[in-house]
Amino acid sequence: MIESRAYSEKEYQSCYILGRNIARPGRCHRGSITFVTESESGATGGEVSGFSGDSTRRILRDACTEAGLNPDGAVLLRLGENALYRLRFDPIVVRIARTLDYWQQVQTEVSVAVWLEQEVFFPAARVANYISQPIRVGGHPVTFWKLIPGEDADAGYVSALARLLRRFHGLPLPERFALPETNFYDRVAKRLALSPVSGRDKSYLSDKFEELCGEVGNLKYPLLPSPVHGDAHIKNVMIENGTPILIDFENVGWGQPEWDLSVTATEYASAKFWSRDQYALFAESYGFDVMEWSGFDVMRQIQEIKMTTWLMQNVNESKEIADEFAVRMKTIRTGRSDQPWKPY
User: Fold this and answer.
1) Residue 172, domain extent
2) Residues near 238 by beta carbon (within 8 Å), at least 6 away in sequence
């Protein structure tokens, strides 16, 4: 049975800010999040058991066949919200999303990349022109990207990340397509619904997430609304001939830039990815320290949940990931960062 209740004006305001879908049908309802049990997802061949290195390689082969590319010897770069493969015989990275639920986000990602390249000339990842994109293969949106012949940015480029974000936040609204409102709520809700972790952990994260989302409507933002990257961590920066390049646009929207800044701030405050001097350089390079803002504590806790729910999608992939999930859950449950997190 689906819970139904009246929502206050404050809750509707926070739902608008977060892109939440308040009334959504499903099998088992907690707040606004529909849960799929482990047995149910397994019985239906759902995402929990169906998105892996093996399954995505089959999708890769079919997608490359449609695009006229050779998938032999492709290297899996990353498995998270998407599977990313680098082709061996072409300078292409193939990006496979988890389900068709992400179709609209993938369409936005392609539109944003074209906008950044052709209209505002921003240093960003480029869509490959082999085929009209995205394409649908085996129930997954698939896109093709030009390989950036460089290296991943590391801690030495924290100021470059800040400068990229400052420039990105200064961009105007695109004219040729509608930039959606910033929405991280649905992304986290999907992970909570389908990730193969215990019901106890799911329930705790869901309750805490709903509570924090209710507090978002009370935040008073010091910065003006702008384009928001939506996943603004250092791993989404590449370095090509010394030039920082921004990548990964599936969560780009229009909203508050504080959300982007809270990523590095949380990585410093909670995950311990950054030293004090490195974070100070980030804040100085951007020109604003989000940690000094009264609303940061809410954003920090939401960002912790975002980082943890991203990881828990792959909790069955290895013992190392399962152990890291336990470390992050301890931080979230206790509110203490006694043990540094491992970046993935």
Assistant:
1) 1-34+156-344
2) 125, 148, 150, 151, 152, 153, 244, 245, 247
Q: Note whether 190 and 200 are within 8 A (CB).
A: no
The reply to whether 142 and 235 lie within a common domain is no
Query: CA angle, corner 263, sides to 258 and 265, nearest 5?
Result: 85
Host H or E run for residue 78: strand 75-79
| DSSP annotation string for 140-157 | EEEEEEE---SEE--GGG
Per the CB < 8 A criterion, the answer to whether 188 and 209 are in contact is: yes
Q: Are 116 and 122 in contact (CB under 8 A)?
A: yes
Residue with token string 């960002």? 303
Q: What angle do CA 238, 143, 93 make, to 5 degrees?
A: 40
CA gap 262, 268 in Å, rounded = 10
Q: At 277, which amino acid appears?
A: D
Alpha carbon distance 280, 277 (integer Å) = 5
Q: What digits encode the pLDDT tens for the residues 246-280?
A: 999 999 999 999 999 999 999 999 999 999 999 99
Tell me: the pLDDT tens digits for 159-194? 999 999 999 999 999 999 999 999 889 889 989 988
Report pTM. Answer: 0.82
**Domain presence at residue 41:** no
Q: Are residues 100 and 206 in the same domain?
A: no
Kindly state the tokens that stand for 102.
Answer: 């992400």
Q: What is the pLDDT of residues 123-165, one digit of tens each?
A: 999 999 878 999 999 999 999 999 999 999 999 999 999 999 9
From the number of C-beta atoms within 10 Å of its C-beta (0-12, 13-18, 19+), residue 235 rates as: middle
CATH number at residue 68: 3.30.200.20
Count of the separate structural domains present in the chain: 2
